[in-house]
Amino acid sequence: MCGIVAYLGKNNAIPLLIKGLKRLEYRGYDSTGIAFIDKYKKLAVIKKKGKIKNLENAIPEGLFSNIGIAHTRWATHGEPSDINAHPHTDCKGEIAVVHNGIIENFRAIRDFLVNKGHKIKTDTDTEVIAHLIEENYRGDLLEATRMALNIVEGTYGIAVISSKEPDKIIIARNGSPLAIAQNNNNYFAASDASAIIGNSESLYYMKDKEICVMSKEGLNITTLDNTPVTPEFQKIEFDLSRIEKNGFPHFMLKEIYEQPEVVMNTIRGRIDMENGDVRLNGLKNYEEWFRRDVNRIIFTACGTSWHASLIAEYLIEKLAGIPVEVEYASEFRYRNPIIDKNTAVFVVTQSGETADTLAALREAKKKGANVFGICNVVGSTIARETDAGIYVHAGPEIGVASTKAFTAQIVGALLIAVYLGRMRNLSYEEGKNIIENLLKLPAKIEGLLKEHDKIKKIAEKFKDNKNFLYLGRGFNFPIALEGALKMKEISYIHAEGYPAAEMKHGPIALIDENMPVVFIATKDSIYKKVINNIEEVKARNGNVIAIGTKGDKKLAKLANYVVYIPKTIDVLIPILTVIPLQLMAYYAAVLNGCDVDQPRNLAKSVTVE
Ligand code: G6P
Question: What percent of the chain has a predicted confidence (pLDDT) above 90?
Fold first, then answer.
């Protein structure tokens, strides 16, 4: 999604801004731009549709400026184009604004501005901010920005520069993340810590309705209604090598291969083998409440995190016997969800910034729920706004299609299920058995990743197909959904996930020799039922690609292609079955020449509704 970088200091802003933009590429974007104050103290703006390379090519060599703002845009209002790219300027080209978020009342503001004689040049909601600042400018950029922001409704993270006051940057936040860093007399701001790290050791995450002036004199932060704010800087714990590809052709592949380590990182420090239990310090303050009072749990999330939530539902109901409901965050926020004092709400999110998930969290809190996070990005908005929760420690995930964060979320959900289960009916023996098997999982994933050539050959065979069907039951139903999502996200091949038995209520009509059907048919309690579903597909000439359990010869006879996962206990199966499906989608996308890490139209972190 859109990204912001801003710099003011002793060094040349231009290469620093470009470097920052490149670090934000993973969020997904369709155009980029920068604004800076040139040597004549004039505002200069360069912006281009497409990749950052296009912007770099448009920047004359040898440019120097001490101050600038930059942006990667992901279109919401107005098509991707040079003109609609940020930064946006006022009528006189003296004020430039970059913006993340959505201004909901921009049409009314635009009409007002047009009546006042402003010339609006683009179809974006952002441009009205530049004109509103111009309209309110009476010799003080901070005040003019403050007044403009008091008029706009919606979400924003913004950075503003102006040739009228060429030695300051104004930044402000409401609902769209912005972090600030300082290092001697160098000041940075960005919508994502990854754009800043390496330049400073600590960060301040702005809060909603805060506005900051960066200048050579330092940082001056206040709330929009002018109350001074003392920023609390946090040390950045971020290993730069983790946002580089380390020899892999794509971040997605690197992240798929990181999964054995990620599983260990999610578990680390949380195992209590002696008691067949887990320790979750993040939930400690609510332990008694979970033990005595909780009788219903709601999970809410988006995308891949929603699929992880479906697995959490199976896990918690099976191991802890507590009823669980799973809801898309975008639906939850607009319903009237029934929540009482014994309902726990869990929000699951990789980024911790997804707008719908954040809104669902706030809605649940408004209704009096205790809200817990299963989150990857430390210090993210959702991590800060939840009452408590656990981090999954997957590390930075750069590929837009989520892989390692998904496995980490399932492991996190399993830990919570064991934790809640051991407070109820889950025996010591069962708890211990799950933990012992969980600890064996990283080695099993390593083994499974060695099957990559076989999986690549299957992808080669089917890469030109227009459709795929993914079928599974029980724990493997959400995996069918996730496998299909991976395929469509990065290879643009249409793929549908279904509970295997539901096939006969519709999708079976699609089956012929041109329809590859991916069955997740592991040796678990419903194995025989899934085999029956495979027979139904074979009887109609469907092509079956099966994910099965090592040693299952029957499956090899039935299916056209089989990838085996190592044996494990039922509750761990989804962590293994998803891996061949991630690899299959990856290879299909590579073989079709798709942009694996930045698929078209998608954003890593969807910070708008
Ligand atoms: C976007 C990403 C998905 C992700 C979803 C939810 O659509 O492309 O990969 O699953 O947002 O994101 P979250 O950060 O809340 O897990």
Answer: 79
* Mean pLDDT over the full length of the chain: 93
The verdict on whether 302 is a catalytic residue reads no
In which band, very low, low, confident or very high, does the pLDDT at 77 lie, cut at 50, 70 and 90? confident
Does 87 sit behind a cis peptide bond, omega within 30 degrees of 0 on the bond before it?
A: yes
Tell me what pLDDT residue 601 has: 83
- Ligand 1 pocket (Cβ < 6 Å) reads 302-305, 349-351, 354, 357, 400-402, 602, 604-606
pLDDT tens digits for 453-473? 999 999 999 999 999 999 999
3-state secondary structure of 166: coil
Ligand 1: centre distance to CA 350 (Å): 7
Beta-sheet pairing, 179-183 with 156-162: unpaired
What's the average model confidence in pLDDT over 230-244? 76
Q: For the sheet containing 202-205, what is the strand order?
A: 43-49, 31-37, 67-73, 3-8, 186-190, 179-183, 202-205, 234-235
What's the burial of 570, exposed, middle or buried (CB within 10 Å: 0-12/13-18/19+)?
middle
Cβ-in-10-Å burial (0-12, 13-18, 19+) of 281 comes to exposed
141 within 8 A of 170, measured Cβ to Cβ = yes
Report the 10 Å Cβ neighbour count for 225.
9
How far away, in angstroms, is 263 Cα from ligand 1 center?
19
Which residue's CA is the nearest one to ligand 1's atom 8? 604
Task: Give me 39's structure tokens.
Answer: 């040597």
Are 85 and 32 in contact by the 8 Å Cβ rule? The answer is: yes
Instruction: Confirm whether 604 is a catalytic residue.
Output: yes
> What pLDDT score does 334 carry?
85
* Assigned token pair, 448: 């499974």
pLDDT for residue 322 is more than 80:
yes
Q: Which two tokens stand for residue 130?
A: 């530049």
Instruction: Name the CA radius of gyration of the chain, rounded.
Output: 26
Ligand 1 pocket, mutate which of 1, 27, 74, 350 (most atoms under 8 A from CB): 350
Q: Give the model's pLDDT for residue 242.
A: 66
Residue among 69, 86, 150, 72 nearest 122 (CA) = 86
How many residues in the chain?
609
Q: Give 61 or 448, the one with higher predicted confidence.
A: 448
CA geometry: angle 361, 367, 372, nearest 5 deg: 35
Question: Which residue type occupies 209?
Answer: K
Average pLDDT over residues 382-389: 94
- Specify the amino acid at residue 493: I
In this predicted structure, the answer to whether residue 246 has a pLDDT above a threshold of 80 is: no
Domains and CATH numbers, the chain: 3-236 (3.60.20.10), 241-444 (3.40.50.10490), 451-595 (3.40.50.10490)
